[in-house]
Amino acid sequence: MKGLYKIILLVIIPLLIAFGISSFAYNNNTASFVPSFIAEAGYKNTQGETEKYLEFYSSAYEKYLEKEIVNEEKNLKLFTLTVYRWFDFDLESDELDYKEVEYKYAYVLSNINYGNVYYSIYERDDKAHRFEYLPTFKLTINDLSDAEDDQDTTATDFADNSDARLNDYNFVGYTNDSGEETKRTYSGVRISTPSTKWASVKVDSDFSANVEIVISATDSQFPSEEGATIDVATIEVTDYSQRAKDLVLVDGVYKYQDKELVKGYNEDIKKAGYFGYAFTHHIWWQALIAIALTLVVTGSTVLVWESEAKKEKEAQAKREKNKANKR
Length: 327
Prior knowledge:
Distance between the termini: 35 Å
Largest sheet: 6 strands, antiparallel
Number of strands: 15
Structural class: alpha+beta
Number of helices: 5
Strand order of the largest sheet: 6-9-3-2-1-15
């Protein structure tokens, strides 16, 4: 019977407590998984982080367009525009009507040179040195198949990604009078790296495949001043597909017009490897601590029992010895 008690105290109870702690750790660390998943892209990898984000949130995605945006007149590099075409529906669903499924587009601005953007807006240098007033960006998409006076248009502002912080590690700040790059305000406060600017769009199905992509920049300090907003990029495309009618699934690989798409997890943390993350980052050490602390308590109990049993045994032996001596 004592052996059973030992098994319960030294094995079963610690394992049950460790299981409970592990279950708690598994269910309460989901919020930290996505940042960790995105960080797998590698140290200071702007494009990699963006694509890891799409890998998690989409069913599949492809890089649709990538272009270095330059002010040709002034020969100034402004930023990198990358456009991803993605979707978040399940191709393996038997109920899916492919013709009714729409793509989404993610427009990403990275490697932003804020100083050059300001120099593009203004001729005067004195307005290009206010680091605390970063320019803002706007995306406009025009349907070129429509008459100019009856053109379908959609517009949205670029902003930081609302689901995950995607850093622009290669951004360039303003320059001081000596031409040296600075990342401080006039008050001397250090400025953190601005996030990659992001705009997600699902264009109305009335749009044709021929569209014009326009990106404008605005001086955030004097937005209403004349000339404070300019178009910094205008791109025309002829394959701006809105439907997934040509999308196929072949041997587990998504393909669109013979192009292979990167398969994503559609926000399924289990498929994305959450258990491995939870185990390596949280469960193993919390379970180990739980087992160790439990064993301290249960082990101490067993030791007390063993000590009391030993004392009782010695006392019994002493009593029997005394009886024998009296005879």
